[in-house]
Task: inverse folding
DNA sequence: TTTTGAGTTGTTCGA
DNA sequence: GTCGAACAACTCAAA
């Protein structure tokens, strides 16, 4: 009997244990392997338009590598999958497990109604959420102990793509949806080959200097930009981890942060919308007309703080933002504008090609101080000095803010100090950081206990 | 069992 | 300009 391999967030052939398992099962009865992607309401609604575009391009690449044998279906998995099973006489459906609360729940519900087994093999993590815990079995809330336990737990060796697969040939099927209109957005290539190429290039040009350069948004190879390929499963973290040496610990920790936050969300599913630290529920967020306008200014990259604005403009022109800058813009929204972290988190989810609910919400909660490793109350980023420190030549500012290109070098960070700083329409600061910082500290003091 | 020290990402102030 | 202290106090594991 044929097996079905249901592609979801694992759009690759290499190092895909679930795919190998599916093919092995089909081979036992000398049968074929059916490959499918389903545009399902629950499965696909978590993707923003940038991701939808990436998904469509990635599926096109995947279909090519499957000799055009990938079946594309549209509709609820509860309807579409049973129909596929019936029409092909498949005796099993193979998947790589989901851990996002809503998707995991859908798999569990589906499992109950399918007439054939839904076989889970592996996940998109080196160590699946829930596998690492403290001695008393409770989950970690601090990164470093989690990292140590995660390293001791370890992971399997990468495996090759299955060879000589006898793919089931689709008779006729639905086609891919039209790509969304994204205007001038410039996006990197999608697909497994692009992911592996990008990793190889970073490994050669950026990995050795990663510990130092990772905080520099002006540098091209400061970071690996593997977050989007990892999000779509075009490469597995195990593939990357396997190529790191002992000296690459700083980079390995970044891979682990993704797994740590997935673990935290797995144990605390409500933290997609709720504070992990309940004290924070009392935080007096700003709302109303002024706050609405400030939020719009922040979204548009018009706060009058160059480093913040450059980051926010990078987000809407590339669907991506450098990690250091994500922290600075998040800190600015929360602690300078006193706006609820959830609004910022939602905006990020709408634009990031790597948008991942666990990493995104908990990255925001970390900055807010409501999450893991609750950042001490005094950790309020200074949006000006952060820019001067991590973009010393003003190149990042020049790249995204045309109104400041006339200010040479680091002067781009301080338009108020130049005679013609505002000559090309750059906005004045919407708030005074030194005043808002004090207010943020006072607010924290109120909710702390 | 209790104590102690370390912990992604910081800033400001004053010497 | 550089440097250390202060900010104030949670989680976790090793001693």
Result:
């Amino acid at each position: 009997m044929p097996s079905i391999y249901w592609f979801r967030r694992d759009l690759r052939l290499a190092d895909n244990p679930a795919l190998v398992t599916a093919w092995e099962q089909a081979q036992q009865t000398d049968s074929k392997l059916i490959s499918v992607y389903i545009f399902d309401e629950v499965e696909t609604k978590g993707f923003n338009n940038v991701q939808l575009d990436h998904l469509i391009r990635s599926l096109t690449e995947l279909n090519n590598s499957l000799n055009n044998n990938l079946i594309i279906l549209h509709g609820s998995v509860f309807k579409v999958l049973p129909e596929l099973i019936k029409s092909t006489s498949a005796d099993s459906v193979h998947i790589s497990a989901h851990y996002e609360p809503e998707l995991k729940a859908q798999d569990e519900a589906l499992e109950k109604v399918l007439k054939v087994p839904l076989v889970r093999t592996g996940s998109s993590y080196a160590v699946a959420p829930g596998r690492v815990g403290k001695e008393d079995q409770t989950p970690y809330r601090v990164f470093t102990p989690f990292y140590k336990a995660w390293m001791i737990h370890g992971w399997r060796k990468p495996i090759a793509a299955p060879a000589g697969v006898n793919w089931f040939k689709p008779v006729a099927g639905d086609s891919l949806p039209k790509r969304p209109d994204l205007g001038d957005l410039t996006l990197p290539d999608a697909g497994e080959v692009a992911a592996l190429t990008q990793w190889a290039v970073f490994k050669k040009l950026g990995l050795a200097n990663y510990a130092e350069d990772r905080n520099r948004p002006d540098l091209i190879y400061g970071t690996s930009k593997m977050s989007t390929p990892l999000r779509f499963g075009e490469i597995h973290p195990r593939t990357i981890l396997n190529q790191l040496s002992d000296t690459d610990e700083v980079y390995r920790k970044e891979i682990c942060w993704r797994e740590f936050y997935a673990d935290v969300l797995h144990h605390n599913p409500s933290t997609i919308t709720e504070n992990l630290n309940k004290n924070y529920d009392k935080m007096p967020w700003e709302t109303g007309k002024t706050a609405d306008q400030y939020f719009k200014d922040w979204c548009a990259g018009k706060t009058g703080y160059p480093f913040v604005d450059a980051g926010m403009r990078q987000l809407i022109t590339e669907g991506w933002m450098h990690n250091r800058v994500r922290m600075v813009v998040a800190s600015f929204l929360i602690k300078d504008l006193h706006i609820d972290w959830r609004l910022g988190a939602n905006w990020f989810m709408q634009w990031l090609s790597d948008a991942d609910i666990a990493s995104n919400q908990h990255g925001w909660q970390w900055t807010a101080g409501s999450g893991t490793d609750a950042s001490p109350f005094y950790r309020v980023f200074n949006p000006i000095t952060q820019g001067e420190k991590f973009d010393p030549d003003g190149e990042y500012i020049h790249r995204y803010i045309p109104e400041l290109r006339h200010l040479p070098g680091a002067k781009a960070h301080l338009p108020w100090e130049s005679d013609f700083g505002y000559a090309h329409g750059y906005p004045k600061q919407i708030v005074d950081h030194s005043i808002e910082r004090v207010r943020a500290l006072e607010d924290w003091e109120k909710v702390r206990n």
Residues 3-123 of chain A form a domain with the Rossmann fold fold (CATH 3.40.50.620). Chain A has three domains: 3-123, 124-156+191-267, 273-447. The CA atoms of residues 139 and 379 of chain A lie 25 Å apart.
